[in-house]
Amino acid sequence: MSETVTVDEPATHDAAQEPATGERADLLEALAKQRHFLRFTTRDLTDEQAGRRTTASQLCLGGLIKHVTAVERTWVRFILDGPSAMPDFTKMTEADWARRADEFRMLPGETLTGVLADYAEVARRTDELVVTLPDLDAAQPLPKAPWSEPGGRWSARRVLLHIVTETAQHAGHADIIRESLDGAKSMG
Question: pTM for the whole thing?
Answer without folding.
Answer: 0.88
